[in-house]
């Protein structure tokens, strides 16, 4: 969940070749929730683990013990070596019969959350980790610096540019020990989308094959201005939207997903996001899909704003802009999570085509 600074006067954009006209954003039809789905598993009382903060739940302990198996899918907590620091992550592995992976999905959470955002505690059918692994794609849901199981070791986190370098080191370390197929596909939410774009712009080794980003625009909406990076003071509606978009138990379970904002994210020394996006976007050379929820309130999401945002990605071979009906900003925690994740994985398939 992003920090909404006021942009300074825009610097003139550098000259570039004329981009292919960007089509108007497509509207993704809402998929009604099946009736009835099995009840959500209640979230047990929190209990501390040896390396974890006190909000760790029994469900989390199941992941840590490797017991969260589903149709051959195994989800476990791992640690990634990123040089000067280590990152915690959830790693979802498909059934061994799936064979070698064609790519690895890297899920990057937003502001004030951590990796379990992509493994919904309210209803198992909404988990990206389980769904992707069932379809044969390993998923690495990474805790950004200052977040998750090892966040207490570096509580101040890192500025965005340093996070990009850290993520690349962590993925390189992962690739030395695990098969990655064609490379890494970044699926990112909100502030995590900022990191994904930065990492793609910095990807000199060509390890990334595509980006799928939700909840990230390039100009803040008027309603979002003035909220601090801590997201206090009435930002509930911006983050969630109507309550009926989420399964029962979502808001109780969400307490275990939330985290404080590290200092270096709250006070990043880099340029404000609108200016930084203009600097990063022309350097992204992989396919990009941008998804905006029907009830997205953090960003300007009119057709003109989204067409202009897509046009900045001038070096990308393919840019798609979609709208997800019946969804709020936190798409991966609502009923729209499953159709959104399926479309993201379909975009991964397109990125894997020769």
From TrEMBL:
A Pfam family the protein falls into: Abhydrolase_6
Biased composition range(s): Pro residues: 1-15, 22-51
Region (Disordered): 1-65
Gene3D superfamilies in the record: alpha/beta hydrolase
Domain spans labelled AB hydrolase-1: 105-331
InterPro entries documented for this protein: AB_hydrolase_1, AB_hydrolase_fold, Carboxylesterase_BioH
Molecular functions (GO terms): catalytic activity
UniProt-recorded name of the protein: Thioesterase
Organism listed in the record: Streptomyces pristinaespiralis
């Amino acid at each position: 969940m992003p920090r909404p600074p006021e942009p300074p006067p825009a610097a003139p954009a550098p000259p570039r070749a004329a981009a292919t006209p960007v089509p108007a954003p497509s509207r993704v039809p809402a998929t009604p929730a099946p009736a009835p789905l099995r009840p959500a598993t209640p979230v047990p009382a929190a209990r501390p683990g040896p390396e974890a903060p006190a909000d760790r739940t029994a469900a989390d302990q199941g992941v840590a013990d490797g017991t969260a198996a589903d149709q051959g899918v195994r989800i476990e907590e791992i640690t990634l070596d990123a040089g000067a620091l280590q990152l915690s992550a959830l790693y979802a592995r498909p059934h061994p019969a799936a064979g070698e992976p064609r790519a690895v999905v890297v899920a990057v959470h937003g502001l004030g959350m951590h990796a379990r955002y992509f493994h919904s505690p309210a209803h198992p059918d909404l988990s990206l980790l389980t769904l992707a692994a069932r379809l044969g794609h390993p998923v690495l849901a990474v805790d950004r610096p200052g977040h998750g199981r090892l966040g207490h070791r570096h509580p101040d986190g890192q500025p965005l540019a340093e996070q990009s370098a850290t993520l690349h080191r962590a993925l390189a370390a992962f690739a030395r020990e695990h098969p990655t197929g064609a490379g890494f596909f970044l699926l990112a939410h909100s502030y995590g989308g900022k990191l994904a774009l930065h990492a793609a712009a910095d990807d000199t080794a060509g390890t990334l094959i595509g980006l799928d980003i939700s909840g990230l625009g390039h100009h803040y909406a008027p309603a979002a201005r003035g909220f601090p990076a801590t997201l206090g003071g009435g930002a509930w509606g911006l983050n969630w939207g109507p309550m009926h978009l989420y399964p029962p138990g979502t808001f109780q379970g969400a307490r275990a997903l939330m985290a404080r904002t590290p200092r270096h994210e709250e006070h990043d020394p880099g340029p404000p996001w609108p200016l930084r996006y203009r600097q990063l976007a022309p350097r992204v050379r992989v396919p990009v899909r941008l998804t905006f929820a029907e009830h997205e309130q953090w960003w300007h999401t009119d057709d003109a704003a989204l067409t202009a945002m897509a046009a900045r990605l001038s070096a990308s071979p393919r840019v798609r802009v979609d709208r997800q009906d019946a969804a709020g900003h936190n798409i991966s925690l609502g009923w729209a999570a499953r159709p959104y994740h399926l479309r993201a994985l379909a975009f991964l398939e397109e990125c894997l085509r020769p």
